[in-house]
Amino acid sequence: MKLFLSNTQYIDTKQPLDLSIPLRHGSENLRAWYVDTPRFEPVRANGFLGAVNEGGSVNFRNVFFNPHGHGTHTECLGHITPEVFSVNERVTEYICKALLLTVAPERVYNQDAQEWDEVVKKEQLDTAKFLENDIEALIIRTLPNDQNKKSKNYSSTNPPYLDIDIVELLDQFNIKHLLIDVPSVDRESDGGKLVFHHRFWKVPEAPNHERTITELIYVKDSIEDGVFLLELQLAPFQNDAAPSRPILYKLNEKK
Q1: Which of 245, 200, 198 is nearest to 73 (CA)?
Q2: Rounded to whole angstroms, what are the CA distances from 106 to 20, 201, 226?
Q3: Rounded CA Rg of the chain
Q4: Domain boundaries of the chain, sorted by first residue
Q5: Picking from 110-114, 183-187, 200-204, which range would have the lowest pLDDT averaged per residue?
Q6: Homologous superfamily (CATH) for 2-23+67-253
Q7: DSSP state letter for 13
Q8: Rounded to an integer, what distance in angstroms lies between the CA atom of residue 186 and that of residue 195?
Q9: Band of pLDDT at residue 1, cut at 50, 70 and 90
Q10: Residue-by-residue DSSP string for 154-206
């Protein structure tokens, strides 16, 4: 269906671009933060069997997973505050314009850790594209964009992260939602400082309850950089983070 946004622009709802990574049982699922693999297990209790292929009447499985460590998820400031605010209550608008940018992180020597990091720098983001469009969300695709992002074990790999100066840009253009294809906006091992998280959410000085961070997305190579309509679908978990399904729609010009 064509949904018209204005006299000149429309989206085709039959052509969604899904940025989420499915949650799967076992070792094929991606992992981060040293969590075990997710498990999908039939319920076996009091003579009941929740597996049709084993003789049960229905498939009825328990799912054991961690939102932060097992796939695409959206989190709110409750991730770093003493009170565990719920992302389900903080996100009240699900559709906005988003800018997708592709960046090859720079190698930067980390003096504290005495090792090389891969960091997305503020200077790598094209500010002209922010100025040209009224956007509320920024999506960052990092290079290389290998398929193994969808099944990788990121633990102890020191994945790419974002330079703290990027928050200035996000503040300048009033970016509400940040989406990335790595496990965290911060360094994997930073002594628990999470400096980007804190500055992005203005915690503790002026907590921003509207902003979200979505991590572990996957943006296919076939999706070109540019401006899209973003639909941020969330599972209704009363938790600081919830599994999510960010969907993009191309903004088409009416002819």
Answers
A1: 245
A2: 25, 25, 22
A3: 20
A4: 2-23+67-253
A5: 110-114
A6: Putative cyclase (3.50.30.50)
A7: T
A8: 7
A9: confident
A10: -TTS---EE-TTHHHHHHHTT--EEEESSS-SS-S-STT--HHHHHHHTTTTS
Which residues make Cβ contacts (< 8 Å) with residue 68, sequence separation at least 6?
32, 33, 75, 79, 215, 241
**How many helices (H) and strands (E) are present in the chain, helices listed first?**
4, 18
216 phi-psi bin (left φ>0, alpha ψ -120 to 50, beta other) = left
And the tokens for 93?
């608008």
Tokens of 157: 């790999």
| E strands in 39-132 | 39-42, 44-45, 48-49, 61-64, 73-75, 95-103, 106-110, 115-120
**What type of residue is 122?**
K
User: With 80 as the cut, is the pLDDT of residue 124 above it?
Assistant: yes
Stretch 170-190: mean pLDDT: 97
Among the listed residues 95, 103, 106, the one whose alpha carbon sits nearest the alpha carbon of residue 180: 103
Hey, what amino acid is at 76? C
